[in-house]
């Protein structure tokens, strides 16, 4: 990627950090230019960012639906942000503060994911509380960068003040351990969406990647959805089965989101949204936020991932008492079955498919950064969001439509959810 400008400026000088450039009053476009020239020595490639695209991107901002940084910090750093200080470059992560600034991220749902096996361990709720506290610690550690947001009004104010509005999303209904009371407690701690399931089916909701129990939502599952409406918590339908999607769309009084899912018509993976659901989405007003994982968006890669999931299940049956043996043989399988990363254009293909089927008001971005292992070329980290603006512009979309994709649609859903709660 190369940002082209008509004449050199001090903002294009090499060796200056993003923080210094911002302090000098450089524009987002100039910061992108400087970073790219530093990284690539001015070599042209297919992802040049035009002046018009940079200006459109700067006049809006990115509101991303899903970033797994909290779990990455938990697993990689025993001392949290003291050890993984995101005010400094972090090559092992997709996310740090300088790159968030370059990407013009103005609002972010931070995922407080906890593994499904915490159900069996009996500590799913406690671990989720700990993850929420980790987000609060991040906000307290970097108060000039992040501020907790609880509704659309907060997002507008915080982003307008030049900080990143930080919202909390729970990835998986197992976090509430089958208790509406615990759902309320997590909402009180700041959680503003809950993905109804993760990889495993629950007693009250079916997952896209597990055996069905309720043919969608059980009666209790419907109660959960309505309680989330009452609380003003977004219903997130990523990870759930099509039957669960249909039930949630029928029951919910507020617009839903798919915080990190893509179009199944392009890449046939159960984690993606089928057209039969997309056509129903406008009636609800919800938004599909496109996932960036190569394994979900590249058609060939989706096929390999399905084979991998089937093999993983075989290993669980073969070695029920040894996770180490399961992982050892899975890694050997993965080495023999690589899958392509794809190019960033595939993400725009998914965006355009949702637009064609559901409409421009029903698509957004849900990267899954720091929760995925492979990304399309051109979308390697949080600094690369301007590439999407450039590619959408090349495909004929004007500023208003691009801003709907970047932030406007999910902001509307968040606002409408609060109105339903009131």
Text of the CATH class of the largest domain: Alpha Beta
Shape: globular
What's the main sheet like?
Answer: 6 strands, parallel
- The helix/strand order is HHHEHHEHHEHEHEHEHEHHEHHHHEHH
**Structure summary, number of beta strands:** 9
CATH topology of the largest domain: TIM Barrel
* Structural domain tally: 2
Percentage of residues in DSSP E strands? 5-15%
Write down the overall mean pLDDT: 92
Radius of gyration: 21 Å
Oligomer state of the chains in this structure: single chain
What is the straight-line distance between the termini?
A: 46 Å
CATH architecture term of the largest domain? Alpha-Beta Barrel
Count of alpha and pi helical runs: 19
Broad structural category? alpha/beta
- Approximate helicity band: 40-55%
Question: CATH-wise, what's the superfamily of the largest domain?
Answer: Metal-dependent hydrolases
Q: Uncertain segments of ≥5 residues (pLDDT<50)?
A: 1-10, 12-18, 36-44
Please characterize this protein's 3D structure:
- The structure is a single chain.
- By secondary structure, the chain is an alpha/beta fold.
- It folds into two domains: 1-45, no CATH class; 46-298 and 340-421, Metal-dependent hydrolases (TIM Barrel, Alpha-Beta Barrel), CATH 3.20.20.
- 47% of the residues lie in helices and 10% in strands.
- Strand 5, helix 10 (219-231) and strand 6 (234-236) form a beta-alpha-beta unit.
């Amino acid at each position: 990627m190369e940002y082209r400008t008509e004449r050199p400026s001090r903002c294009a000088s090499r060796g200056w950090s993003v923080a210094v450039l911002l302090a000098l009053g450089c524009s987002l476009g100039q910061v992108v230019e400087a970073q790219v020239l530093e990284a690539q020595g001015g070599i042209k490639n297919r992802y040049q960012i035009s002046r018009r695209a940079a200006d459109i991107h700067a006049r809006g901002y990115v509101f991303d639906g899903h970033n797994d940084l909290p779990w990455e910090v938990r697993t990689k750093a025993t001392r949290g942000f003291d050890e993984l200080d995101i005010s400094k470059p972090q090559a092992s992560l997709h996310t740090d503060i300088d790159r968030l600034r370059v990407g013009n991220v103005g609002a972010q749902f931070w995922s407080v994911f906890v593994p499904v096996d915490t159900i069996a361990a009996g500590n799913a709720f406690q671990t989720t509380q700990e993850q929420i506290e980790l987000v609060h610690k991040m906000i307290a550690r970097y108060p000039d960068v992040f501020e907790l947001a609880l509704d659309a009004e907060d997002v507008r104010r915080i982003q307008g003040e030049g900080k990143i509005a930080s919202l909390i999303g729970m990835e998986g209904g197992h976090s509430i351990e089958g208790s509406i009371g615990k759902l309320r407690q997590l909402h009180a701690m700041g959680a503003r969406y809950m993905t109804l399931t993760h990889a495993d089916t629950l007693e009250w909701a079916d997952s896209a990647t597990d055996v069905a129990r309720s043919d969608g939502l059980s009666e209790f599952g419907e109660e959960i959805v309505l309680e989330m409406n009452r609380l003003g918590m977004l219903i997130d339908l990523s990870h759930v089965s099509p039957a669960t999607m249909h039930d949630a769309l029928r029951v919910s009084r507020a617009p839903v989101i798919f915080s990190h899912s893509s179009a199944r018509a392009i890449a046939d993976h159960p984690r993606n949204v089928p057209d039969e659901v997309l056509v129903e989405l406008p009636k609800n007003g919800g938004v599909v936020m496109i996932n960036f994982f190569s394994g979900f968006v590249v058609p060939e890669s989706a096929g390999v991932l399905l084979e991998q999931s089937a093999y993983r299940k075989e290993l669980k049956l073969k070695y029920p008492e040894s996770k180490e043996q399961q992982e050892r043989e899975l890694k050997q399988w993965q080495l023999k079955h690589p899958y392509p990363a794809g190019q960033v254009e595939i993400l725009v293909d998914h965006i355009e498919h949702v637009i064609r089927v559901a409409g421009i008001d029903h698509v957004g971005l849900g990267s899954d950064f720091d929760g995925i292992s492979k990304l399309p070329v051109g979308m390697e980290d949080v600094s690369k969001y301007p590439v999407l603006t450039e590619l959408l512009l090349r495909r004929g979309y004007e500023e208003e439509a691009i801003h709907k994709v970047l932030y406007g649609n999910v902001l509307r859903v968040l606002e409408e959810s609060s109105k339903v709660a009131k």
